[in-house]
Amino acid sequence: MSLAELVALEQRHAVPTYVRSPVQFVRGEGVYLYDDAGNQYLDFLAGISVLNVGHCHQIVVAAVQAQVAALTHVSNLYYTEPAMRLSRALAESSLGGKVFLCNSGAEANEAAIKLARRHRPGGGIVVLRDAFHGRTYGALSATPQEAKQAPFAPLVPGFVACEKDPDALTAAVGPGTAAVLLEPIQGEGGVLPLAPELLGAAREACDREGAVLIFDEVQTGMGRTGTLWAYEQTGVVPDALTSAKALGGGLPIGALITGERLADTLRPGDHGSTFAGGPVACAAALVALELCSDPALLAHVRSAGERLMAALGELPFIISVRGRGLLVGAELAPGLSAPGLAARALLQERLVINATGPSSLRLEPPLIVTEAQVDEAVRRLARVA
Ligand SMILES: *Cc1c(COP(=O)(O)O)cnc(C)c1O
What we know:
Layout: H1 3-13, E1 25-29, E2 32-35, E3 40-43, H2 46-49, H3 58-70, H4 81-93, E4 96-102, H5 105-119, E5 124-128, H6 137-141, H7 146-149, E6 159-162, H8 166-172, E7 177-182, E8 185-186, E9 192-193, H9 196-209, E10 212-216, E11 240-243, E12 254-259, H10 279-292, H11 295-314, E13 318-324, E14 327-332, H12 338-349, E15 351-352, E16 354-355, E17 360-363, H13 371-384
Bound molecules: pyridoxal-5'-phosphate (PLP).
Pyridoxal-5'-phosphate is lined by residues 104-106, 109, 132-134, 183, 187-188, 216, 218-219, 244-245.
């Protein structure tokens, strides 16, 4: 079908929740996407940090093909090997406790919120300004953004939005607090790394009050920041973390990973999902997790990220650059529109990037991006400013 036909179908049949760019992609390979006319695009968004291993990675494709032909679904009433192997791999890769598998980032945070409430019944959940934790009611209630929340009030009670200040956070956590939930680097908020002092204050406050500290690593995890999990670089270990986005190598899957202390907090019957831990998504995730754990790849993420940030910092129309590894945000000079620039990059230069706000760009290429591709992306960006 032509793009015009797709737009017509969208207008007639798709609930209009998305603002799509006028491009139809039909194929992906590594760091490249191809549209219906065969044009090649440099993908510096990776499906919003989903294709960390690159599009259609051969090993992921092979694992999915083998599993889909053997067994696609049985539900959690029975055992399947991929789910149990993935649970072990995720726990051993991080906090050492137990894993609840689900289907998305929002669902992973829903599980985390239920974990927190089981830990301290009726307890409050402290979240931070500019946070994004997803669109379902619990996750939305944890996302203190007026435009996203207001139309859907009343929200789930018990969420407290706190300024990103160590003293404010220390004051916000009390004996009635069940959890502090935060992103170590706020992704949708505009790639805003949280200060080490803030993370330290969150850890201390939770320890003092017996609350649990939960890191939402849906976007920062799976190698994106140059370590498998971003918390490894913060000096703070959370009590639980959530993953999704890149976890499935392109397939939809999410996970809540606990530390040992919370491993058995959720009990039989407390939570569940029909598709959760399905064999195909888990087979893909097992491979993606192994690929993203490779120390050589992680070292490459750190150096490629530094190269990208340095090159962006040299551009005259960029006033500041922030992020870690290949999760990079850039603030544009006054007068420039980030959505406009992203649109021109896509249509004129075939560079896929994203605007997180009126003046902020976000770049998060597949982790396998080469230095030459980094340089090429920056050259293309420079031409559309
Ligand atoms: C994308 C994202 C989510 C939501 O994930 P979905 O899979 O879209 O539900 C939650 N938290 C963070 C930090 C994210 O980046």
